[in-house]
Automatic annotation (TrEMBL):
PANTHER family: OS03G0578900 PROTEIN (PTHR47995:SF1), TRANSCRIPTION FACTOR MYB33-RELATED (PTHR47995). It is found in: Nucleus. The lineage of its organism: Eukaryota, Viridiplantae, Streptophyta, Embryophyta, Tracheophyta. Residues 253-262 have a biased composition (Low complexity). Residues 40-89, 90-140 form the Myb-like domain. Its main location: nucleus. Residues 1-27, 253-297, 303-322, 333-363 are annotated as: Disordered. This is Transcription factor GAMYB.
Length: 363
DNA sequence: AAGAAGGACAACCGCATAGAA
DNA sequence: GTTCTATGCGGTTGTCCTTCT
């Protein structure tokens, strides 16, 4: 049926072409222009087309993409022009493999945002939503096929923990929770940025801001029981073999680029481990201020259940005894179990990001 | 060496939304 | 208030290349 439609449409186009060609032959330039407007090219762009588009954007700026075809005669629809420009031609695009930092960032952002590629890409300068989407889908597919977790242990821990907090009627902390000398809140700029989001769904996180925490390098959670050498995450993730190795055992790879992932994450520690002897642990996934503290970090001690505190590496006010500790380990371990592919697929079908599963805020 | 399988990437399609007319 | 247009976004498909058998 669909094929027949396409066939019919194609035949129709052919007839139109013939008719139009005759008219052109008769010198009807208007019809020729109309024909050109109808028969737009598809498929890969040529360098000549790229040059035309670049020249057009230089002269007229971005936007008004439908005018490109009219002005330049380029046989591409506006949509195609915009896509070509944003994904390939615009300046400052970063090409090539994702760095470990970028991969971790994508994992964290995806855990919080789900398939919001445009928003994820806004955290990775130089990367396009299409690029990130392709990257993520490819790796997700591969890892699911291999029975490996989609998210790194640190991210999984937070996913599990956020679920547990909901089960326990845990009340998220305010955004002004003091953490040692840090305040998990946005500065004025971040607050302004957060205001751009709807109140129904606060900004997922200002990861970059939290990663830096002023001049401090980012530090992720201490190794969890799940990141034992037998953990699937002990295996290389994606093309970067050093990616997602354990913080306590993975020195910064000499191959790790020094180029910051984000304009404001100049000191992101590629190893995600303790850095510079400062054992203050910063939240890997703290929501932005303004944002609900749905994923309390190890630093949010006052309201943190003992289990999480035990994993956080911080000393809880009421340290559990050994039996309790092991029970909590088991509990969290169960909670963090990798969802079987079927379940993951179901979640995907609902288009509900794992981190937002059970999210009552909705969107 | 040839075909199959998988990965990476580019591009298209349909839908949603915002702003203009 | 409605319609139209431009734009953006996410899902999907197609193509090329590499690796494996």
């Amino acid at each position: 049926m669909e094929e027949e439609k396409k066939l019919a449409a194609a035949e129709g186009r052919e007839e139109e072409k013939v008719a139009a060609a005759e008219e052109v032959a008769a010198g009807r330039e208007e019809e020729e222009a109309a024909l050109a407007a109808v028969v737009l090219k598809k498929g890969p762009w040529t360098s000549a087309e790229d040059a035309v588009l670049v020249q057009h954007v230089r002269q007229h700026g971005e936007g008004n993409w439908n005018a490109v075809q009219r002005v330049t005669g380029l046989l591409r629809c506006g949509k195609s022009c915009r896509l070509r420009w944003t994904n390939h031609l615009r300046p400052n695009l970063k090409k090539g493999s994702f760095s470990p930092d970028e991969e971790f960032l994508v994992a964290q952002l995806h855990a919080q945002l789900g398939n919001k590629w445009a928003r994820i890409s806004s955290h990775l300068p130089g990367r396009t939503d299409n690029e990130i989407k392709n990257y993520w889908n490819t790796r997700t597919k591969r890892r699911q096929r291999a029975g490996l977790p989609v998210y790194p242990p640190e991210v999984q821990l937070h996913l599990a923990y956020s679920k547990r907090c909901r089960y326990d009627g845990f009340t998220p902390l305010s955004s002004q929770q003091q953490v040692g000398s840090h305040v998990l809140s946005l500065d004025a700029g971040d607050a302004a940025a957060s205001a751009r989001y709807t109140t129904a769904r606060p900004p997922p996180l200002d990861l970059a801001g939290h990663l830096t925490m002023g001049s401090r390098p980012v530090q992720f959670l201490a190794p969890t029981p799940f990141s034992a050498p037998s953990s699937p995450w002990g295996k290389p993730f994606a093309r970067n073999a050093q990616f997602f190795q354990f913080p306590h055992s993975s020195p910064v790879s000499p191959t790790t680029p020094n180029v910051p992932v984000h304009a404001v994450t100049p000191k992101l520690s590629p190893g995600y481990g303790l850095h510079g002897g400062d054992h203050t642990r910063l939240p890997p996934m703290s929501p932005s201020s303004g944002a609900r503290a749905e994923l309390p970090s190890s630093q949010l001690r006052p309201a943190m259940p003992p289990a999480a505190a035990a994993f956080s590496g911080t000393a809880p006010n009421d340290p559990p005894n050994q039996a309790t500790f092991e029970a909590m380990l088991q509990e969290l371990h169960d909670a963090i179990k990798i969802d079987p592919p079927a379940q993951q697929n179901r979640e995907k079908e609902r288009d509900v990001p794992a981190a937002a599963a059970g999210d009552t805020h909705g969107e």
